[in-house]
Amino acid sequence: MLSAVPKPVLKDLAQYLEKQGLPHRIKKFKPCSGGCINNGGELLTGEESFFLKWNSATRYPAMFATEGKGLKKLHNTGAINLPEFIYDGEAGEYAYILMEFIQPGARKPNYWELFGQQLAALHGNSSEQFGLDHDNYIGSLPQYNNPHSDWPAFFIIERLERQLRMAFDDRALDRAIQRQFDVLFPRLEGYFPVEQPALIHGDLWGGNLITNTVGNPCLIDPAVYYGHREAELAFTRLFGGFDREFYQVYQATFPLESGFDERCDLYNLYPLLVHVNLFGGGYALQVKGILKRFV
Ligand code: ADP
């Protein structure tokens, strides 16, 4: 299925691999199945195997450059496994990213315990401000990371208001909902415990956690920023959640302040608004349900 990869991408990649002194005769491409925003799959050269993703360069400017930066940033902490970023490039109308291919394996018996410890270790990486030194993407939508020194301001200005504006412009949400957010915003400070900014994966749902060949947890497809670590944990619960052991071990390693269960949905207003903007439909009802509880 090498024909599935656009020719300019193949040519560019072969040149890159040759320049690096790597085996550059690309022999095979196995597309990944389902759930992809981008086109992606395993690229085989005979000796080596890589993971390749590509998309339109103009539709999603710098998407893969920022994914590469995110992978490197998380990788550099040494806290948790992620594919090693190799290269990102543009060829013709396409942009692409090349990274280590994670050979899938079966979960180790202590997989969830390890993941709890490793995510807690990742969240132990801090910064002076919430945000990041560059913007990136959440799914296929822009994610703005202008720095703020307090979490409620960051969450309101860079997360909720950005998505709300998009939803109103696209008529995915009725403008009347703004009034409820206006009531909610000044109250948020009273809900969120004050914490140091924590380095988070940013898009941590089950689809972005895979298992490597030795059975360890491995994160993919990050939307990195320094945020409130509770936002990350809330996100993990949005679509079913992980094994109970993961939450127990995380809590034992890096305890959360009490009351997380009650405020969890407030953090999930962000990913839910992202889903309203990406998919519409029922997600707006979930947003309204949360507002009803808190406003
Ligand atoms: P998208 O950016 O389109 O959301 P993902 O990065 O989530 O794509 O990848 C889509 C699927 O491809 C994942 O669910 C996973 O199964 C697989 N995948 C992604 N990255 C790798 C990798 N480095 N090694 C092996 N498989 C991967």
Written overview of the protein:
The chain has 295 residues and is α+β, with helices and mostly antiparallel strands. The protein folds into two domains: 2-100, Phosphorylase Kinase, domain 1; 111-294, Alpha-Beta Complex (Aminoglycoside 3'-phosphotransferase, Chain: A, domain 2). Helices cover 43% and strands 17% of the residues. The chain contains ten helices and eleven strands. The strands form four sheets. The protein has a five-stranded antiparallel beta sheet, sandwiched between helices. A two-stranded antiparallel sheet has the order 6-7. A hairpin with a 5-residue loop joins strand 9 and strand 10 (217-219). Helix 4 packs antiparallel against helix 5. The mean pLDDT is 95. Adenosine-5'-diphosphate binds at residues 32, 35-38, 40, 51, 53, 83, 99-102, 207-208, 210, 220-221.
Brief account:
The protein is of the alpha+beta class. It is built from 10 helices and 11 strands. Strand 4 and strand 5 (94-100) form a beta hairpin.
Briefly, what CATH class of the largest domain?
A: Alpha Beta
Q: Indicate the structural class.
A: alpha+beta
User: Based on CA inertia axes, which overall geometry fits?
Assistant: globular
SSE order: HEEEHEEHEEHHEEEEHHHHH
Mean pLDDT: 95
Described by strand count, sense and barrel closure, the largest sheet is: 5 strands, antiparallel
| CATH homologous superfamily (4th level) name of the largest domain | Aminoglycoside phosphotransferase (APH), C-terminal lobe
Low-confidence stretches: none
Q: Report the portion of residues in β strands.
A: 15-25%
What strand line-up does the widest sheet have? 1-2-3-5-4
Q: Ends: how far apart?
A: 53 Å
Indicate the CATH topology of the largest domain.
Answer: Aminoglycoside 3'-phosphotransferase, Chain: A, domain 2
Number of β-strand runs: 11
CATH architecture type of the largest domain: Alpha-Beta Complex
Helix content: 40-55%
Q: How many domains is the backbone divided into?
A: 2
Radius of gyration: 20 Å
Count of alpha/pi helices: 10
Associated small molecules? adenosine-5'-diphosphate
